[in-house]
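Continuing the series of single-chain predictions for the mutant panel. This is the parent chain; the variants come on the following pages.
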Amino acid sequence: MIPNGQTTGPVEIRKLLSSGKRVAAAATLITGLLALAKGIIGQLRGSPALTADAVHSLADMLAIFASWIGLKLAERPPTKRFPFGFYRAETLASLLVSALILFAGVHLLVESVKGLAGQAGELHHSVDVLIAALLSALISYGIYIWEKRVGNRLGSQSLLANADESRIDVLTSLAVFAGTGASYLGVSKVEMVVTALISVFIVWLGFKHGRVALYSLLDASLDPGIERQVIEAAGEVPGVMRVAEVQLRQAGLFRFGIARIQLRKSVDITRGHDIAHRVVGAVRAAIPRIESLTVHLEPFFPKELRVLVPVDGNTAGALLSDHFGRASFFALATMSSENVDSINFIENTARDKQARAGLAAIKHIFLKNRVDVVLTREIGEISYHALRGYYVEVYGAPAAPLERILKQFAAGAMTMLPGPTHDSEAASAPSSADKT
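Parent structure:
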């Protein structure tokens, strides 16, 4: 298991936290003043609808204040007691927002039902109520735009929840405006019908945001799309044969995760550690909001192997070549279990190169083919390390026909070469006399 350690997170996102905190503080003040003004006018003019809307705005103010607390706590760096930071304070704030939205929705629904049933008493309307409702709608719309923009930049659950609530404020204020206007025209109970419909929508929003916050607290998988991004980013790291599993959990603006990656059995601890850190870097570069990723290393057991063998012919009975880089052909066999499913022969166009013929052949073959294992009698230092750079396992093979070599490998009768069989391939370069 190779953890990447706990870090303080992307700097640009932490700067955005301050921006979100400023929005929440300003919105708290404005919404509080708006609730106070509507409450006073509603009580003085005897308008239950405007008074209920004031209660709704008061719930909004408390919700936005909770978001401010969450964003402020999220700025604090991790501590020994809280090694994963305080990011879930924002999720808790979002849960509180949802509870307040539900409260406001149920309250408005009860009031509207009473009004429709004729239990709310005679409604009194005035110009003050109309003006207050219209100004409330305009101010709430401005707050909605502001919270939505910053919430999307931050990915803040609570700010986005508050933005939706501010959007509902616009509708409720317009409902009060339309209802009192309809009363002036002699149409009764319009306000209560509209308010009842909006209150049902408010209750739905409360459940919606509460579900997301609760799922976050329970470490549920909330975004399969991001998990796919992690798999793609990790799978592109050289040496990673397969990304077996990715698990992500959300904490406020950030995500923490576990990835299980599979490497070839021949990869040692040092190289495995390096690959794990490359995976962490690649994933966090692709998805900056992943605060921490723990990588588990596992052995790779492929369903089929692609085995490369240097041979001096292009038939199943061709003999193993004495020189890897000077072989006439390379046999690329696809093997599953102990069976040879297919064999393709690739002509070695690099065999007549003066030097580094093996390296040239490897580059040519690996451009279009995946190779898991190489079986060879001998291999030079450059070619050996080039193959290991591709995370290919190299086995020593006896001088025998191709068919017998593949059978022996399938039976587990070969051992992996610990290193090259000679220092340089220069000694095996063809001489001028050989060419003539």
